[in-house]
Amino acid sequence: MKKHIYAVLARIYVNLLPYLSRLPHGVAWVKQYLPDEGFFIPGLFFFHSFYSMPAVILIISVYSSKRYAIPFITTFLVLTLITVYLNHDYDLAADAQAAIGLIFIPMIEAFFAALALAAGYGIQHLMVSRATKTVTE
To answer: Is the predicted pLDDT of residue 56 greater than 80, yes or no?
Structure first.
């Protein structure tokens, strides 16, 4: 039950982070990511359907972190950093094709999150193997 709550919180966090990363530039920058009033709900579903890719990787790290939370921590930190970096100054008004980036940014984030998850598993494996090696000696 506890991991289900963490998974829901991870999904909400990943979906809110692009908006939160644009807040230092002001509300006008946040409104660039919001769809028009006529298509507000379908637009949000469309935008957040792409953000389900990095959210799924973060949820996998929640459910698969058993002994240590290192895969979750590495995935969470890398996903937060790459999301803030890619979204904080992405100007949709700069170009007519700039909105296409809203589709590719979550894919890039998911790629780096998967790399961080793999690195977290590697670090966790090294820690467990060293801990069992010192116990047996």
So the answer is: yes
